[in-house]
From TrEMBL:
It comes from Tepidibacter hydrothermalis. UDP-N-acetyl-alpha-D-glucosamine binds at residues 92, 121-125, 305, 327. The keyword Cell cycle applies. SUPFAM superfamilies: EPT/RTPC-like. It comes from the Bacteria. Phosphoenolpyruvate binds at residues 22-23. The gene is murA. The active site is at residue 116. The keyword Cell division applies. Belongs to the EPSP synthase family. MurA subfamily. CDD domains: UdpNAET. This is UDP-N-acetylglucosamine 1-carboxyvinyltransferase.
Amino acid sequence: MAKYIVQGGNKLEGEIRLKGAKNSVLPIIAATILNEGESVIHNVPNISDVKVMIDILKYIGCYVKMEGDTLTIDTKNVNSSEIPESFVRKMRSSIIFLGAMVSRFGHTKISYPGGCEIGPRPIDLHLKSLSQMGVNIEETHGYIKCNKQHNKACEINLDFPSVGATENVMLAAVKTNGVTKIYNCAKEPEITDLANFLNSMGADIKGAGNSCIEIHGVNKLHDVEHRIIPDRIAIGTYLVAGAITNGRIIIDDIIPSHINSIVSKLRETGCEIEYINNKVQLIAPKTIHSIDVIKTLPHPGFPTDMQAQMMALMTLANGACIINENIFENRFKHCEELIRMGANINVNGKLAVIRGVDKLMGAKVESFDLRGGAALVLAGLAADEYTEIDSIHHIDRGYEDMEKVLTSLGANIIRA
Ligand SMILES: CC(=O)N[C@H]1[C@@H](OP(=O)(O)OP(=O)(O)OC[C@H]2O[C@@H](n3ccc(=O)[nH]c3=O)[C@H](O)[C@@H]2O)O[C@H](CO)[C@@H](O)[C@@H]1O
Ligand SMILES: C=C(OP(=O)(O)O)C(=O)O
Protein backbone atom coordinates (compact mmCIF):
# COMPACT_ATOMS: atom_id res chain seq x y z
CA MET A 1 0.00 0.00 0.00
CA ALA A 2 1.21 3.51 -0.83
CA LYS A 3 2.79 5.67 1.85
CA TYR A 4 4.23 9.13 2.32
CA ILE A 5 7.72 9.75 3.60
CA VAL A 6 8.11 13.25 4.99
CA GLN A 7 11.33 14.85 6.17
CA GLY A 8 10.27 17.53 8.61
CA GLY A 9 11.75 20.92 9.28
CA ASN A 10 11.16 22.92 6.09
CA LYS A 11 9.31 26.22 6.36
CA LEU A 12 6.48 26.24 3.78
CA GLU A 13 6.35 29.32 1.62
CA GLY A 14 4.58 30.22 -1.61
CA GLU A 15 1.23 30.41 -3.33
CA ILE A 16 -1.12 27.59 -4.28
CA ARG A 17 -4.49 27.19 -5.95
CA LEU A 18 -6.66 24.19 -5.16
CA LYS A 19 -9.56 22.46 -6.91
CA GLY A 20 -13.23 22.34 -5.94
CA ALA A 21 -14.75 20.85 -2.81
CA LYS A 22 -15.01 17.08 -2.49
CA ASN A 23 -18.18 17.44 -0.41
CA SER A 24 -19.83 19.51 -3.15
CA VAL A 25 -18.77 17.52 -6.15
CA LEU A 26 -19.90 14.13 -4.77
CA PRO A 27 -23.61 15.00 -4.30
CA ILE A 28 -23.55 17.09 -7.49
CA ILE A 29 -22.30 14.09 -9.48
CA ALA A 30 -25.19 12.04 -8.05
CA ALA A 31 -27.57 14.90 -8.93
CA THR A 32 -26.62 14.71 -12.62
CA ILE A 33 -28.92 11.73 -13.07
CA LEU A 34 -31.98 13.94 -12.49
CA ASN A 35 -31.98 15.82 -15.81
CA GLU A 36 -31.78 12.87 -18.24
CA GLY A 37 -29.26 14.93 -20.20
CA GLU A 38 -25.85 16.57 -20.09
CA SER A 39 -24.11 18.18 -17.12
CA VAL A 40 -20.76 19.93 -17.48
CA ILE A 41 -18.99 20.41 -14.16
CA HIS A 42 -15.84 22.52 -13.78
CA ASN A 43 -13.22 22.71 -11.02
CA VAL A 44 -13.55 18.98 -10.28
CA PRO A 45 -10.78 17.61 -8.04
CA ASN A 46 -8.89 14.56 -9.25
CA ILE A 47 -9.43 12.48 -6.10
CA SER A 48 -10.31 8.84 -5.62
CA ASP A 49 -13.84 9.54 -4.31
CA VAL A 50 -14.65 11.26 -7.62
CA LYS A 51 -13.28 8.23 -9.49
CA VAL A 52 -15.62 5.94 -7.54
CA MET A 53 -18.58 8.21 -8.38
CA ILE A 54 -17.58 8.07 -12.05
CA ASP A 55 -17.39 4.26 -11.86
CA ILE A 56 -20.92 4.19 -10.41
CA LEU A 57 -22.23 6.44 -13.20
CA LYS A 58 -20.60 4.22 -15.84
CA TYR A 59 -22.02 1.11 -14.16
CA ILE A 60 -25.56 2.49 -14.41
CA GLY A 61 -25.08 3.39 -18.10
CA CYS A 62 -23.95 7.04 -18.18
CA TYR A 63 -21.51 8.56 -20.64
CA VAL A 64 -18.69 10.21 -18.64
CA LYS A 65 -15.68 12.20 -19.84
CA MET A 66 -13.06 13.90 -17.65
CA GLU A 67 -10.84 16.47 -19.41
CA GLY A 68 -8.55 18.44 -17.11
CA ASP A 69 -10.82 19.51 -14.27
CA THR A 70 -14.00 19.42 -16.38
CA LEU A 71 -16.34 16.50 -16.04
CA THR A 72 -19.01 15.95 -18.66
CA ILE A 73 -21.76 13.51 -17.81
CA ASP A 74 -24.65 12.41 -19.99
CA THR A 75 -27.31 10.53 -18.05
CA LYS A 76 -29.80 9.96 -20.92
CA ASN A 77 -29.14 6.25 -21.15
CA VAL A 78 -29.12 5.25 -17.49
CA ASN A 79 -30.36 1.66 -17.45
CA SER A 80 -30.12 0.64 -13.81
CA SER A 81 -31.39 2.07 -10.54
CA GLU A 82 -29.34 -0.32 -8.43
CA ILE A 83 -26.01 0.43 -6.69
CA PRO A 84 -24.24 -2.75 -5.57
CA GLU A 85 -22.32 -3.28 -2.36
CA SER A 86 -18.86 -3.10 -3.96
CA PHE A 87 -19.33 0.63 -4.68
CA VAL A 88 -21.00 1.56 -1.40
CA ARG A 89 -18.18 -0.17 0.48
CA LYS A 90 -15.61 1.96 -1.35
CA MET A 91 -17.43 5.18 -0.67
CA ARG A 92 -20.04 5.56 2.00
CA SER A 93 -21.39 8.80 0.60
CA SER A 94 -22.67 6.96 -2.48
CA ILE A 95 -25.82 6.77 -0.32
CA ILE A 96 -26.62 10.16 -1.85
CA PHE A 97 -27.80 8.24 -4.93
CA LEU A 98 -30.90 7.25 -2.90
CA GLY A 99 -32.58 10.64 -3.36
CA ALA A 100 -31.30 11.05 -6.91
CA MET A 101 -32.59 7.62 -8.04
CA VAL A 102 -35.95 8.12 -6.34
CA SER A 103 -36.25 11.43 -8.18
CA ARG A 104 -35.36 9.95 -11.57
CA PHE A 105 -37.04 6.52 -11.41
CA GLY A 106 -39.29 6.52 -8.35
CA HIS A 107 -37.44 3.45 -7.14
CA THR A 108 -33.95 2.20 -6.29
CA LYS A 109 -32.01 -0.55 -4.56
CA ILE A 110 -28.78 0.42 -2.82
CA SER A 111 -26.50 -1.58 -0.58
CA TYR A 112 -26.68 -0.55 3.08
CA PRO A 113 -23.61 1.49 4.03
CA GLY A 114 -21.82 0.31 7.14
CA GLY A 115 -20.02 2.50 9.60
CA CYS A 116 -16.62 3.80 8.60
CA GLU A 117 -13.25 4.73 10.02
CA ILE A 118 -14.75 7.61 12.01
CA GLY A 119 -17.40 5.53 13.72
CA PRO A 120 -20.98 4.37 13.11
CA ARG A 121 -22.74 6.54 10.56
CA PRO A 122 -26.44 5.74 10.68
CA ILE A 123 -28.78 6.79 7.87
CA ASP A 124 -31.99 6.72 9.91
CA LEU A 125 -32.67 10.41 9.21
CA HIS A 126 -32.33 9.85 5.44
CA LEU A 127 -34.76 6.92 5.54
CA LYS A 128 -37.25 8.54 7.93
CA SER A 129 -37.39 11.66 5.73
CA LEU A 130 -37.83 9.71 2.50
CA SER A 131 -40.56 7.67 4.10
CA GLN A 132 -42.35 10.90 5.16
CA MET A 133 -42.12 11.92 1.50
CA GLY A 134 -44.13 8.88 0.51
CA VAL A 135 -41.27 6.49 -0.29
CA ASN A 136 -41.83 2.93 0.82
CA ILE A 137 -38.59 1.57 2.31
CA GLU A 138 -37.71 -2.08 2.71
CA GLU A 139 -34.42 -3.11 4.30
CA THR A 140 -33.53 -6.66 3.25
CA HIS A 141 -30.32 -8.71 2.95
CA GLY A 142 -28.09 -5.65 3.41
CA TYR A 143 -29.93 -3.64 0.77
CA ILE A 144 -32.34 -0.71 1.00
CA LYS A 145 -35.20 -0.88 -1.51
CA CYS A 146 -37.09 2.35 -2.12
CA ASN A 147 -40.39 2.74 -3.99
CA LYS A 148 -42.11 6.07 -4.29
CA GLN A 149 -45.83 5.63 -3.52
CA HIS A 150 -47.08 9.13 -4.27
CA ASN A 151 -45.79 12.45 -5.57
CA LYS A 152 -47.04 14.89 -2.95
CA ALA A 153 -44.92 17.42 -1.08
CA CYS A 154 -44.61 17.42 2.71
CA GLU A 155 -42.74 19.10 5.56
CA ILE A 156 -39.69 17.40 7.05
CA ASN A 157 -38.25 18.30 10.46
CA LEU A 158 -34.75 16.87 10.77
CA ASP A 159 -33.78 15.82 14.32
CA PHE A 160 -30.22 16.89 13.48
CA PRO A 161 -29.03 19.09 10.58
CA SER A 162 -27.49 16.15 8.72
CA VAL A 163 -25.69 17.14 5.51
CA GLY A 164 -26.42 13.87 3.72
CA ALA A 165 -30.08 13.69 4.80
CA THR A 166 -30.66 17.30 3.67
CA GLU A 167 -29.10 16.47 0.29
CA ASN A 168 -31.11 13.28 -0.18
CA VAL A 169 -34.40 15.09 0.58
CA MET A 170 -33.49 17.96 -1.76
CA LEU A 171 -32.76 15.53 -4.57
CA ALA A 172 -35.87 13.43 -3.99
CA ALA A 173 -38.09 16.54 -3.85
CA VAL A 174 -37.00 18.36 -7.03
CA LYS A 175 -39.84 16.91 -9.13
CA THR A 176 -42.40 16.39 -6.34
CA ASN A 177 -45.72 18.23 -6.77
CA GLY A 178 -46.05 21.17 -4.40
CA VAL A 179 -43.57 22.66 -1.93
CA THR A 180 -41.40 20.36 0.17
CA LYS A 181 -39.97 22.14 3.23
CA ILE A 182 -36.99 20.91 5.23
CA TYR A 183 -36.73 22.43 8.70
CA ASN A 184 -33.51 22.24 10.75
CA CYS A 185 -31.65 21.39 7.56
CA ALA A 186 -27.87 21.54 7.17
CA LYS A 187 -26.47 24.98 6.29
CA GLU A 188 -23.06 23.92 4.95
CA PRO A 189 -21.80 25.79 1.84
CA GLU A 190 -21.93 22.48 -0.03
CA ILE A 191 -25.73 22.43 0.46
CA THR A 192 -25.94 25.83 -1.22
CA ASP A 193 -23.69 24.62 -4.04
CA LEU A 194 -25.97 21.63 -4.63
CA ALA A 195 -29.04 23.92 -4.63
CA ASN A 196 -27.33 26.26 -7.11
CA PHE A 197 -26.46 23.32 -9.37
CA LEU A 198 -30.04 22.01 -9.25
CA ASN A 199 -31.50 25.47 -9.85
CA SER A 200 -29.25 25.89 -12.89
CA MET A 201 -30.74 22.60 -14.09
CA GLY A 202 -34.26 24.04 -13.78
CA ALA A 203 -35.14 23.15 -10.18
CA ASP A 204 -36.75 25.73 -7.88
CA ILE A 205 -35.04 25.60 -4.49
CA LYS A 206 -35.12 28.51 -2.06
CA GLY A 207 -33.43 29.10 1.28
CA ALA A 208 -30.29 26.96 0.92
CA GLY A 209 -27.75 28.12 3.50
CA ASN A 210 -30.55 28.85 6.00
CA SER A 211 -32.19 26.44 8.40
CA CYS A 212 -35.31 25.99 6.25
CA ILE A 213 -35.13 24.99 2.60
CA GLU A 214 -38.15 25.05 0.30
CA ILE A 215 -38.17 22.87 -2.78
CA HIS A 216 -40.90 23.89 -5.23
CA GLY A 217 -41.55 20.90 -7.48
CA VAL A 218 -40.92 21.29 -11.23
CA ASN A 219 -41.82 19.01 -14.15
CA LYS A 220 -38.88 19.55 -16.47
CA LEU A 221 -35.12 19.88 -16.07
CA HIS A 222 -32.49 20.72 -18.66
CA ASP A 223 -28.75 20.55 -19.44
CA VAL A 224 -26.51 22.39 -17.01
CA GLU A 225 -22.99 23.83 -16.60
CA HIS A 226 -21.61 24.52 -13.13
CA ARG A 227 -18.35 25.34 -11.29
CA ILE A 228 -17.74 23.61 -7.95
CA ILE A 229 -17.03 25.91 -4.97
CA PRO A 230 -13.53 25.97 -3.44
CA ASP A 231 -12.73 23.24 -0.93
CA ARG A 232 -12.82 24.98 2.46
CA ILE A 233 -11.40 21.89 4.20
CA ALA A 234 -8.45 21.47 1.81
CA ILE A 235 -7.80 25.22 2.15
CA GLY A 236 -7.90 24.92 5.95
CA THR A 237 -5.53 21.94 5.83
CA TYR A 238 -2.89 23.84 3.81
CA LEU A 239 -3.28 26.90 6.06
CA VAL A 240 -2.37 24.63 8.97
CA ALA A 241 0.62 23.37 6.93
CA GLY A 242 1.82 27.00 6.78
CA ALA A 243 1.16 27.53 10.48
CA ILE A 244 2.84 24.34 11.73
CA THR A 245 6.04 25.01 9.76
CA ASN A 246 6.28 28.70 10.82
CA GLY A 247 5.75 29.51 7.15
CA ARG A 248 3.97 32.03 5.00
CA ILE A 249 1.48 30.87 2.40
CA ILE A 250 -1.10 32.29 0.06
CA ILE A 251 -4.06 30.30 -1.25
CA ASP A 252 -5.87 31.52 -4.35
CA ASP A 253 -9.59 31.03 -5.07
CA ILE A 254 -11.22 31.07 -1.67
CA ILE A 255 -14.58 32.26 -0.32
CA PRO A 256 -13.94 34.05 3.00
CA SER A 257 -17.36 33.30 4.54
CA HIS A 258 -16.75 29.56 4.01
CA ILE A 259 -13.50 29.52 5.98
CA ASN A 260 -14.25 32.10 8.69
CA SER A 261 -14.56 29.59 11.54
CA ILE A 262 -11.21 28.02 10.59
CA VAL A 263 -9.47 31.36 10.11
CA SER A 264 -10.75 32.69 13.41
CA LYS A 265 -9.27 29.67 15.28
CA LEU A 266 -5.97 30.03 13.42
CA ARG A 267 -5.85 33.71 14.39
CA GLU A 268 -6.13 32.62 18.03
CA THR A 269 -2.88 30.72 17.54
CA GLY A 270 -1.12 33.97 16.62
CA CYS A 271 -1.22 33.49 12.84
CA GLU A 272 -1.68 36.70 10.87
CA ILE A 273 -4.34 36.04 8.27
CA GLU A 274 -5.50 38.45 5.63
CA TYR A 275 -7.97 38.20 2.76
CA ILE A 276 -6.69 39.84 -0.39
CA ASN A 277 -9.37 39.77 -3.12
CA ASN A 278 -10.17 36.10 -3.46
CA LYS A 279 -6.93 34.94 -1.83
CA VAL A 280 -6.04 34.24 1.76
CA GLN A 281 -2.54 34.81 3.16
CA LEU A 282 -1.25 33.25 6.37
CA ILE A 283 1.93 34.33 8.16
CA ALA A 284 2.74 32.03 11.06
CA PRO A 285 4.04 33.29 14.41
CA LYS A 286 7.36 32.04 15.87
CA THR A 287 5.45 30.23 18.61
CA ILE A 288 2.00 28.73 18.12
CA HIS A 289 -0.34 29.86 20.92
CA SER A 290 -2.64 27.22 22.28
CA ILE A 291 -6.40 27.59 21.81
CA ASP A 292 -8.40 26.93 25.00
CA VAL A 293 -11.29 25.06 23.40
CA ILE A 294 -12.14 23.85 19.90
CA LYS A 295 -15.70 22.53 19.57
CA THR A 296 -16.80 20.90 16.35
CA LEU A 297 -20.32 21.88 15.33
CA PRO A 298 -22.54 21.96 12.24
CA HIS A 299 -21.86 24.93 9.94
CA PRO A 300 -21.25 27.80 10.65
CA GLY A 301 -19.50 26.25 13.67
CA PHE A 302 -15.99 24.79 13.50
CA PRO A 303 -16.04 21.83 11.04
CA THR A 304 -15.35 18.32 12.27
CA ASP A 305 -13.41 17.79 9.01
CA MET A 306 -10.72 20.19 10.35
CA GLN A 307 -10.54 18.72 13.85
CA ALA A 308 -7.59 16.35 13.28
CA GLN A 309 -5.52 18.97 11.44
CA MET A 310 -6.02 21.52 14.25
CA MET A 311 -5.06 18.86 16.75
CA ALA A 312 -1.76 18.32 14.91
CA LEU A 313 -1.11 22.06 15.26
CA MET A 314 -2.04 22.07 18.95
CA THR A 315 0.50 19.31 19.71
CA LEU A 316 3.19 21.99 19.22
CA ALA A 317 1.40 24.93 20.89
CA ASN A 318 2.65 26.70 24.02
CA GLY A 319 -0.10 25.40 26.33
CA ALA A 320 -3.11 23.12 26.58
CA CYS A 321 -6.13 22.80 24.31
CA ILE A 322 -9.40 20.91 24.76
CA ILE A 323 -10.97 19.54 21.60
CA ASN A 324 -14.64 18.64 21.87
CA GLU A 325 -15.74 16.43 18.95
CA ASN A 326 -19.51 16.78 18.77
CA ILE A 327 -20.30 15.40 15.32
CA PHE A 328 -18.74 11.94 15.06
CA GLU A 329 -18.43 9.43 17.90
CA ASN A 330 -15.05 7.99 17.06
CA ARG A 331 -13.02 10.63 15.28
CA PHE A 332 -9.88 10.47 17.43
CA LYS A 333 -7.98 7.56 15.84
CA HIS A 334 -5.18 9.93 14.81
CA CYS A 335 -4.41 10.63 18.49
CA GLU A 336 -2.54 7.38 19.06
CA GLU A 337 -0.43 7.99 15.99
CA LEU A 338 0.36 11.58 17.05
CA ILE A 339 1.33 10.21 20.46
CA ARG A 340 3.83 7.88 18.71
CA MET A 341 5.40 11.06 17.37
CA GLY A 342 5.81 12.50 20.86
CA ALA A 343 2.52 14.38 21.26
CA ASN A 344 0.89 14.66 24.68
CA ILE A 345 -2.80 13.84 24.20
CA ASN A 346 -5.43 12.37 26.53
CA VAL A 347 -8.74 11.25 25.11
CA ASN A 348 -11.88 10.76 27.15
CA GLY A 349 -15.06 10.15 25.15
CA LYS A 350 -15.77 13.20 23.00
CA LEU A 351 -12.94 15.21 24.60
CA ALA A 352 -9.24 15.28 23.83
CA VAL A 353 -6.81 17.29 25.90
CA ILE A 354 -3.67 18.25 24.01
CA ARG A 355 -0.73 19.64 25.95
CA GLY A 356 1.78 21.25 23.61
CA VAL A 357 5.29 19.75 23.47
CA ASP A 358 8.53 21.39 22.28
CA LYS A 359 9.02 19.02 19.38
CA LEU A 360 7.54 16.05 17.56
CA MET A 361 9.71 13.12 16.46
CA GLY A 362 9.46 11.43 13.09
CA ALA A 363 7.95 7.93 13.38
CA LYS A 364 6.16 5.21 11.41
CA VAL A 365 2.45 5.96 11.65
CA GLU A 366 -0.75 4.85 9.99
CA SER A 367 -3.51 6.87 8.42
CA PHE A 368 -6.90 5.46 9.47
CA ASP A 369 -9.11 8.03 7.77
CA LEU A 370 -8.94 10.98 5.40
CA ARG A 371 -8.49 13.91 7.79
CA GLY A 372 -6.57 11.91 10.39
CA GLY A 373 -4.12 11.01 7.62
CA ALA A 374 -3.79 14.66 6.61
CA ALA A 375 -3.08 15.54 10.26
CA LEU A 376 -0.21 13.04 10.34
CA VAL A 377 1.32 14.59 7.22
CA LEU A 378 1.07 18.02 8.89
CA ALA A 379 2.73 16.68 12.04
CA GLY A 380 5.45 15.08 9.88
CA LEU A 381 6.19 18.43 8.21
CA ALA A 382 7.10 19.86 11.62
CA ALA A 383 8.71 16.76 13.19
CA ASP A 384 12.39 15.90 13.54
CA GLU A 385 13.76 13.57 10.85
CA TYR A 386 11.54 11.21 8.88
CA THR A 387 7.86 10.35 9.29
CA GLU A 388 6.40 7.44 7.32
CA ILE A 389 2.63 7.61 6.88
CA ASP A 390 1.05 4.35 5.77
CA SER A 391 -2.34 3.72 4.10
CA ILE A 392 -2.45 7.05 2.30
CA HIS A 393 -5.28 5.84 0.08
CA HIS A 394 -7.46 7.47 2.73
CA ILE A 395 -5.76 10.82 2.02
CA ASP A 396 -6.19 10.31 -1.74
CA ARG A 397 -9.97 10.19 -1.20
CA GLY A 398 -10.04 13.91 -0.60
CA TYR A 399 -6.75 15.63 -1.50
CA GLU A 400 -5.53 15.90 -5.09
CA ASP A 401 -1.77 15.24 -5.28
CA MET A 402 -1.06 16.35 -1.73
CA GLU A 403 2.66 15.62 -2.15
CA LYS A 404 2.88 17.86 -5.24
CA VAL A 405 1.11 20.76 -3.54
CA LEU A 406 3.35 20.50 -0.46
CA THR A 407 6.51 20.10 -2.55
CA SER A 408 5.61 23.27 -4.46
CA LEU A 409 5.63 25.05 -1.09
CA GLY A 410 9.07 23.70 -0.19
CA ALA A 411 8.20 20.54 1.74
CA ASN A 412 10.29 17.41 1.54
CA ILE A 413 7.72 14.67 0.92
CA ILE A 414 7.61 11.67 -1.40
CA ARG A 415 5.03 9.03 -2.23
CA ALA A 416 6.55 5.56 -1.96
C1 LIG B 1 -19.58 13.65 1.54
C2 LIG B 1 -19.85 14.61 2.63
O1 LIG B 1 -20.43 15.67 2.41
N1 LIG B 1 -19.41 14.27 3.84
C3 LIG B 1 -19.56 15.21 4.94
C4 LIG B 1 -20.95 15.05 5.54
O2 LIG B 1 -21.09 13.70 5.94
P1 LIG B 1 -22.53 13.15 6.34
O3 LIG B 1 -23.55 13.72 5.42
O4 LIG B 1 -22.43 11.67 6.45
O5 LIG B 1 -22.69 13.78 7.77
P2 LIG B 1 -24.04 14.11 8.55
O6 LIG B 1 -24.17 15.60 8.64
O7 LIG B 1 -25.15 13.35 7.98
O8 LIG B 1 -23.71 13.51 9.99
C5 LIG B 1 -23.61 14.29 11.12
C6 LIG B 1 -24.01 13.49 12.34
O9 LIG B 1 -25.35 13.05 12.22
C7 LIG B 1 -25.45 11.67 12.43
N2 LIG B 1 -26.51 11.12 11.56
C8 LIG B 1 -26.53 11.45 10.24
C9 LIG B 1 -27.49 10.94 9.41
C10 LIG B 1 -28.46 10.07 9.97
O10 LIG B 1 -29.36 9.57 9.27
N3 LIG B 1 -28.40 9.77 11.29
C11 LIG B 1 -27.46 10.28 12.11
O11 LIG B 1 -27.44 10.00 13.31
C12 LIG B 1 -24.08 11.13 12.02
O12 LIG B 1 -23.81 9.88 12.58
C13 LIG B 1 -23.17 12.21 12.54
O13 LIG B 1 -22.98 12.01 13.92
O14 LIG B 1 -21.08 15.94 6.63
C14 LIG B 1 -20.16 15.68 7.70
C15 LIG B 1 -20.48 16.63 8.82
O15 LIG B 1 -20.23 17.93 8.45
C16 LIG B 1 -18.72 15.83 7.19
O16 LIG B 1 -17.84 15.42 8.22
C17 LIG B 1 -18.49 14.94 5.98
O17 LIG B 1 -17.24 15.26 5.40
C1 LIG C 1 -15.67 12.45 6.64
C2 LIG C 1 -15.39 12.96 5.45
O1 LIG C 1 -15.91 12.54 4.28
P1 LIG C 1 -16.96 11.36 3.95
O2 LIG C 1 -18.29 11.80 4.46
O3 LIG C 1 -16.94 11.32 2.46
O4 LIG C 1 -16.45 10.13 4.64
C3 LIG C 1 -14.45 14.10 5.27
O5 LIG C 1 -14.46 14.68 4.16
O6 LIG C 1 -13.70 14.42 6.20
